[in-house]
TrEMBL record:
Tagged with keyword Transport: no
Residue ranges of the annotated DNA-binding region, renumbered to this chain: 1-89
Listed GO biological process terms: phosphorelay signal transduction system; regulation of DNA-templated transcription
Annotated source species: Nocardioides luteus
Keyword Transcription set for record: yes
Family matches, as Pfam families: BTAD, Trans_reg_C
GO molecular function ontology, one term from the record: ADP binding
Protein's recorded name: OmpR/PhoB-type domain-containing protein
Residue span(s) of domain OmpR/PhoB-type: 1-89
Keyword entries, A-Z: DNA-binding, Transcription, Transcription regulation
SMART domains associated with the record: BTAD, Trans_reg_C
Homology family: Belongs to the AfsR/DnrI/RedD regulatory family.
Length: 948
C-alpha cells in the first residue's frame, strides 16, 4: 500500500487506486500516515481534527471515521493501539515520511542522489483541503520549507559541479510560486552568474528588490545584498549612488562612522536552533511583513523552558536588516534567581546602550522614560525586552515611534494587549516532528533508532529545555544506549529527577518551574499544587472547584491566574491542561495530607455527580450504600438525560483515572463506590475499558473488609465478562456474589445475582438450570416483598422461554408484566425486545414491528448507537421474513456501520459474525432461512437484562 500526501491525497494498493470518501476521514488518514508505525492517542487525533470545535461525542465520531478507514484500507492496516490508533505501515509507504527520511540521509557522497529521490516524490503542496486541518496549518509550511531548501541545496551542488544551466531551470520553476523567499533568489543569482548570464542576474536582483519593496515595504536581506554586491564587483566597478545613471542599479552608500555607533546587543544565536517555522512566519506576518507597518509591541509568552528567549533571539538575528539603527537586548530578570530588574536599572541600561552618558540619565523613572522615547524618536530599532515579570514591568521601557519592542514573558501580558495594543504570540511546545529534528541535530554523531528518538521526545513532553538536557545527557555518556535513558525516565518517580541539571540553575527544570511558582500568591500556589492531582488529561471548572474546595467563581479566578502565568493552558473552552513535566513539579510541591484530602473531594464529586446523571436518565440504582458528599464539594445536577449523557461521555476517561489515583492513595471506599456508579455509563463503552476498573474496585472493597459491597462489584465484573463473551467466568462471578448475599441475608443482591446467573446459564445452553435459578430469584424477591424486582426475574424467565422456543409462554408472561407498568428500573435492556423476539418466533411480524418502532425512537432520541443496532438487527430479520430483501440488506449494512463505529459492546447481544450470517441469509426464502430466524428469536440479537 502507498499513501501519497505530497500533493492531493492518493492511496493505492498494488498500484490500484483506493478511494477514501469524506473530508474528515481523509484528514484522519493524513494524521495517522504522518505517524505511520507509531500509535497516536485518541485525544491527540480529536484535538487535531476538530481543535476547539469538538463534537458532543468526539470518541464516537472518531470511531465512525476509523471504521470508514478500516473498511477501505483493511483492519490489519488501521488498528487500535496504546489508547489510540496506529497506521501499521512502514514509513517508506508514506511519501511524506520517505521524503523526510531521504532529506535527513542526504549527507556525504550520497547527498545529491538522496536529494534527487526526495524531490522526485514532491507532486504539489501537501494536505489539500480534503485532508488538511491542523496538518495544513503546522506541518505543510514545514514540509514546503524543507522542499525548497532541498531544491536550493541541489542547485548549489549543480553549480559546483558545472551544471549551472540546470540549476537555473530548476530554481526558476519554483521561484514564481515563492517570490518572497530570498534564499531562492540568492541561488538563482549565483546560478545565472555561474552560467555566464550576469546581466540577467542583476535584472533578477532588481525584480526581487522591487517585489520586496512593493509587497513588504522592506529592503533585501543581508545575504541577498551581499550576493548582488559580489556580482557588481565581479562585472564592473561599483557606481557611487549619487552618480548612478537613471535606471541603473546602485550600491547603498556605506556609513562607516555611523555603523560604529549602532548598537548590536543581540546575544549569539543557537547554532542548532530548529523548528518553530510556523511561529517565525507568524511573527513575520505581524511585524516586518505587515502591510500597515508593525505594531509597537509584540509579546511572546509561554511556559518556562519552552524556548522563548532562543526563539526571540533567533528571529531578531535573522531580521536585522529591518532595523538599520540597531538592536538592544536586556534581560529584565522577571523570573529567575534574584530580584527583577527595576525600572530605573532597565532604563539606565537601555540609555547607555544608545550612547547616553551615564551621568546624563535622570534618576526619576518618568524622566528617564521620556529621555528613552526622545532618543529613539527618529530611529528604527528593535528592543528585545526578555523575561518580563508582567505588563507593569515593561510599560516605562516602551519607546513608541518606528521602533519595535519584542517582549518575552511567562505572563500572558494581557495588560499590554489591552492598553498598548500589543500583539501576542503564544509559544507552545514543539510539534512531535520538530522535537525529533531537534534531537537528531544534537545527536548527529550518535546513531539512534528512530523509534527511540521519538520516544525520548515524547518523554520530554516536546519541551525544548527538557530536550536539550536529555541530548546533553546522551552526549555526556556516548556509550550509554538511548534505551537506558528512556528506562531511567520511565523508572523515576518524577521525570524531573532524570532531567535535572543541578550545577546550572538556568538549565535545571525544577529551578525554571520554581520561578513561575514563586511568583504566585499563596492561594494560587495551593491551587497549582492541587491541579497536579487532577485525574486524566484535562479538567473542567466544576471538577476544579471540588479539587480546590471552593465555589465556581473562586475556582475561575484562581485558574485564570495560573493561565496568565502560563502554568495552565485552556486548550478548549472550559477545559484545562498542564504540561506533563509541570504536573510532575506540582506533585512534588504538594503534601501528602493536602493531596489526600483533595483526591477524596474529586472522587466524591464524580461519584455523586454520577448519581445525579443516573437519576436524570431514569437509570438510578442504589443497592450499595454511599459515603455522604465530602465537605466543600457541590456535585452537578442535570436538567435532562441528554445533558447527563454528554457529561458522562466527556468525563468517562477522567473517571477511570480518578479510580486509579484513589486506589493508589489508599482511598479504598471512595474508589470502589465510584466504580460501582460508573456501571450505567460503562454500557456505552467496550467491556475491556471497564473490566480493569471493576477488578480494581473489587480488590479495594475486599481490602476494605466490605464483603457485601465487594459482592455488588463482583456482580458487575460478571456482567462485563459476559458482555466480553467470557460466560463461564461470568457465571462463576454471579454465583460467588450470590453466595455472599445469601450468607449476609441481602435479598435484593441475591435476587440480582441469581437473575444474572440464570441469564448467563441460558446463554451457554443450560436452559433447564437457568429456569431453576430464575425461579429461585423470583421466590427470593417475592418473599421479601420486592414486587418490582420479582417482576424483573419473571422478565428474565421470559427471555429463557424464548431460547427454549416456548414463545407463547414468553409472550403471555411479558405482556402481563408490561401491563403492570415499568419493570425493574435498574435493568440494562427493555423487556419489550424480548417480546419482539417471541413474536418473531411465532411469525407475528407485524406485531413485532409495531413494538420495535417506539424502541427505535427511544434509542435515537438517546443517541444510543449500540441500542439502535440491536433494534435494527431485529427489523432486518422481520424485513427479510416479509420478503423486503432490499430493505433488509440496507438495514444490516447500517448495523455494520454502527459496529464499525462503536465496536462490539456486548457479545451476548450482538456480534459481527451474527450480522454477517444474516446478510448471507438475505435473499433466501422464508423456509430456507427459518433456522436463522429462530436464533434471532432466541435472544442472539440482544435483549439480555443483566442488572448491576
Amino acid at each position: 500500500m502507498s499513501i501519497c500526501l505530497l500533493g492531493p491525497l492518493r492511496v493505492t494498493r498494488a498500484g490500484e487506486p483506493i478511494e477514501v470518501p469524506g473530508r474528515r476521514p481523509r484528514t484522519l488518514l493524513a494524521l495517522l500516515a504522518m505517524e505511520a508505525g507509531t500509535p497516536v492517542s485518541a485525544d491527540v487525533l480529536a484535538d487535531r481534527i476538530w481543535g476547539e470545535e469538538l463534537p458532543d461525542n468526539p470518541r464516537g465520531s472518531l470511531h465512525t471515521y476509523i471504521g470508514r478507514l478500516r473498511r477501505v484500507l483493511g483492519k490489519e492496516v488501521v488498528r487500535r493501539a496504546a489508547g489510540g490508533y496506529i497506521l501499521d505501515l512502514p514509513r517508506s509507504s508514506v511519501d511524506a515520511l520517505a521524503f523526510i527520511d531521504l532529506l535527513d540521509a542526504a549527507q556525504g557522497p550520497e547527498a545529491y542522489a538522496r536529494l534527487e529521490e526526495a524531490i522526485e516524490l514532491w507532486r504539489a503542496e501537501p494536505f489539500d483541503e480534503s485532508a488538511g486541518g491542523s496538518l495544513a496549518e503546522r506541518t505543510r509550511p514545514w514540509l514546503v520549507d524543507r522542499y525548497l531548501a532541498a531544491l536550493e541545496r541541489r542547485a548549489e551542488l549543480d553549480i559546483a559541479a558545472g551544471r549551472a544551466t540546470k540549476a537555473v531551470a530548476d530554481v526558476r520553476r519554483v521561484v514564481g510560486d515563492h517570490p518572497l523567499r530570498e534564499s531562492l533568489w540568492v541561488v538563482m543569482l549565483d546560478a545565472l552568474d555561474a552560467a555566464g548570464r550576469t546581466a540577467e542576474a542583476l535584472e533578477a536582483y532588481e525584480e526581487v528588490r522591487s517585489r520586496l519593496a512593493d509587497e513588504l515595504g522592506a529592503d533585501p536581506g543581508a545575504e541577498l545584498r551581499a550576493t548582488f554586491t559580489r556580482l557588481l564587483v565581479g562585472s564592473s566597478p561599483a557606481v557611487p549612488e549619487a552618480e548612478a545613471a537613471p535606471g541603473q542599479a546602485t550600491v547603498p552608500a556605506q556609513r562607516v562612522s555611523e555603523e560604529d555607533l549602532i548598537p548590536r546587543q543581540l546575544p549569539a544565536d543557537i547554532p542548532s536552533f530548529s523548528g518553530r517555522e510556523a511561529e517565525l512566519r507568524l511573527l513575520d506576518a505581524v511585524t516586518v511583513s505587515h502591510d500597515a507597518g508593525w505594531p509597537s509591541v509584540v509579546a511572546v509568552h509561554g511556559i518556562g523552558a519552552v524556548g522563548k528567549t532562543a526563539f526571540a533571539v533567533h528571529w531578531a538575528r535573522t531580521r536585522t536588516e529591518h532595523f538599520p539603527d540597531g538592536q538592544l537586548f536586556i534581560d529584565l530578570r522577571g523570573f529567575g534567581p534574584g530580584e527583577p530588574l527595576s525600572h530605573a536599572q532597565a532604563l539606565t541600561t537601555l540609555l547607555i546602550g544608545l550612547g547616553v552618558d551615564v551621568a546624563s540619565v535622570p534618576a526619576e523613572v518618568d524622566a528617564a522614560s521620556a529621555l528613552l522615547r526622545t532618543t529613539l524618536a527618529q530611529r528604527r530599532m528593535l528592543l528585545v525586552l526578555d523575561n518580563a515579570r508582567d505588563s507593569a514591568h515593561v510599560r516605562p521601557l516602551l519607546p513608541g515611534g518606528d521602533s519595535l519592542v519584542l517582549v518575552t514573558s511567562r505572563s500572558q501580558l494581557r495588560g499590554l494587549a489591552t492598553r498598548e495594543g500589543a500583539r501576542r504570540l503564544a509559544l507552545d511546545t514543539l510539534a512531535p516532528e520538530e522535537s525529533v529534528a531537534f534531537l537528531r541535530q544534537r545527536l548527529i554523531d550518535r546513531p539512534a533508532d528512530e523509534e527511540d528518538v521519538r520516544a525520548l521526545a515524547e518523554r520530554c513532553g516536546h519541551l525544548p529545555l527538557a530536550l536539550a538536557v536529555a541530548a546533553e545527557r546522551c552526549s555526556r555518556y556516548p556509550d550509554l544506549p538511548l534505551t537506558d535513558l528512556l528506562a531511567e525516565l520511565d523508572g523515576e518517580t518524577s521525570r524531573l529527577a532524570a532531567l535535572e541539571a543541578p550545577l546550572d540553575p538556568i538549565s535545571d527544570l525544577r529551578a525554571v518551574f520554581s520561578w513561575s511558582y514563586d511568583s504566585l500568591d499563596e492561594e494560587s500556589r495551593r491551587a497549582f499544587r492541587l491541579l497536579g492531582l487532577r485525574p486524566g488529561h484535562e479538567i473542567g471548572m466544576p471538577a476544579m472547584a471540588a479539587l480546590f474546595a471552593v465555589d465556581i467563581a473562586t475556582a475561575r479566578r484562581l485558574v485564570d491566574k495560573l493561565v496568565d502565568a502560563n502554568l495552565v493552558r485552556e486548550h478548549r473552552p472550559g477545559r484545562f491542561v498542564l504540561h506533563d513535566l509541570i504536573r510532575d513539579y506540582a506533585l512534588e510541591m504538594g503534601s501528602a495530607e493536602e493531596s489526600g484530602e483533595a483526591m477524596l473531594r474529586v472522587v466524591s464529586w464524580y461519584t455523586h455527580s454520577l448519581v445525579a446523571a443516573s437519576e436524570a436518565g431514569g437509570r438510578h440504582f442504589r443497592l450499595m450504600s454511599l459515603d455522604p458528599v465530602v465537605d466543600g464539594v457541590t456535585p452537578l445536577s442535570f436538567a435532562t438525560a441528554q445533558q447527563a449523557r454528554a457529561w458522562g461521555d466527556r468525563e468517562w476517561l477522567t473517571m477511570g483515572s480518578a479510580v486509579r489515583l484513589a486506589v493508589r492513595a489508599e482511598l479504598l471506599g471512595p474508589a470502589y463506590q465510584l466504580v460501582n456508579k460508573m456501571f450505567t455509563l460503562s454500557m456505552r463503552h467496550p467491556p475491556a475499558e471497564m473490566l480493569p476498573l471493576q477488578e480494581l474496585g473489587l480488590d479495594a472493597a475486599l481490602r476494605a473488609g466490605q464483603q457485601v459491597d465487594a459482592a455488588y462489584i463482583r456482580n458487575q465484573v460478571g456482567i462485563s465478562r459476559a458482555r466480553a463473551g467470557d460466560l463461564s467466568r461470568a457465571i462463576s462471578d454471579f454465583r460467588g456474589a450470590a453466595a455472599v448475599f445469601r450468607e449476609a441475608g441481602t435479598a435484593a443482591g441475591l435476587e440480582m445475582a441469581l437473575s444474572n446467573c440464570g441469564q448467563a446459564l441460558s446463554m451457554i445452553g443450560s436452559l433447564d438450570e437457568a429456569v431453576a435459578v430464575l425461579e429461585e430469584a423470583y421466590a427470593v424477591a417475592d418473599a421479601a416483598g420486592m414486587d418490582d424486582r420479582a417482576r424483573g426475574s419473571l422478565i428474565g424467565l421470559a427471555e429463557v422461554y424464548v431460547r427454549m422456543e416456548r414463545y407463547e409462554d414468553a409472550v403471555r408472561l411479558i405482556e402481563e408484566e408490561i401491563g403492570h407498568g415499568p419493570v425493574d428500573v435498574d435493568s440494562s435492556a427493555s423487556p419489550r425486545l424480548t417480546l419482539v423476539d417471541a413474536l418473531i418466533g411465532l411469525g407475528r411480524y407485524t406485531d413485532a414491528e409495531t413494538h420495535l418502532r417506539p424502541e427505535l425512537a427511544h434509542h435515537l432520541e438517546e443517541r444510543n448507537r449500540w441500542g439502535e443496532a440491536n433494534i435494527l438487527v431485529r427489523r432486518a430479520v422481520i424485513e427479510r421474513e416479509t420478503d423486503r430483501v432490499a430493505q433488509a440488506r440496507a438495514t444490516l449494512h447500517e448495523v455494520v456501520a454502527i459496529l464499525d463505529e462503536v465496536g462490539e459492546l456486548d457479545r451476548t447481544a450482538l456480534t459481527r459474525e451474527r450480522v454477517e450470517e444474516l446478510l448471507a441469509s438475505v435473499g433466501s426464502s422464508a423456509s430456507e432461512g427459518r433456522d436463522v430466524d429462530a436464533s434471532a428469536a432466541q435472544g442472539l440479537g440482544g435483549g439480555v437484562a443483566l442488572r448491576p
